[in-house]
């Protein structure tokens, strides 16, 4: 099973400048995305390393192979980094780029419409349980700094002993019903390699990168009764800790053009 590295980067430079130097290396990213905000923050695993970061994280970088030793031209752009390594099935890695391009730039009329969930949302006092609260709802609908178009949610998961099978029931409901209905898809899933990178020492079990056609589709899911049934029955009882980071994937060609301006 191929090893993939997941890195969070805080930069000295702007993003186009960093990407210009990164593209001079042999690294071929599976995913490179601008970090938007935390949806769920970790409660104890990697808490200090992930949250006590000033300036905040700029980029999510995922690539096949063990952690890459960046040349000085790239490393000089990086102020802080955090990494974890995961095992991902070779069939998923081999087909990922083609599949991901279709997800990010879908054919016309292939994106499912929103359901009516947001007209009578199921709300809570905090989004930490992956429920829709007033702050998250307002951020998504205000259009201020929320991205338009597809988003990719980085999930880190740690399971209670003996509860991973219960989480698989949630994963099945997400893939076949409650997520699929809103265009949600776990497009990259891997088991954390113990002792790898920074996060491999902290007790995380799994990483998942979930796709949504838009933040509105994500909110539509959180606001729905059918999703919250699966969330409360299977997801929440199985997790010892988790976090979700919202990102927006970058078009490397466009960003390279900016770097030359």
Notes on the protein architecture:
The protein is of the alpha+beta class and 261 residues long. It contains nine helices and eight strands. It has helices at 15-22, 47-51, 72-75, 90-104, 134-142, 164-178, 215-222, 225-238, 252-260; strands at residues 3-11, 29-40, 59-64, 78-87, 151-159, 185-192, 206-212, 239-249. The chain is globular, with a radius of gyration of 18 Å.
- The outline comes out as globular
Structural class by helix and strand composition: alpha+beta
Order of helices and strands: EHEHEHEHHEHEEHHEH
Biggest β-sheet: count, sense, barrel? 8 strands, antiparallel, barrel
Lateral strand order in the biggest sheet: 1-3-2-8-5-7-6-4
What distance separates the N and C termini?
41 Å
Assign a percent range to the helix content. Answer: 25-40%
Annotation field: number of helices: 9
* Uncertain runs: 256-261
Strand content: 25-35%
Number of strands: 8
Overall radius of gyration = 18 Å
Rounded mean pLDDT is: 93
Short note summarizing the structure:
With 261 residues, the chain is α+β, with helices and mostly antiparallel strands. The protein is 33% helix and 28% strand.
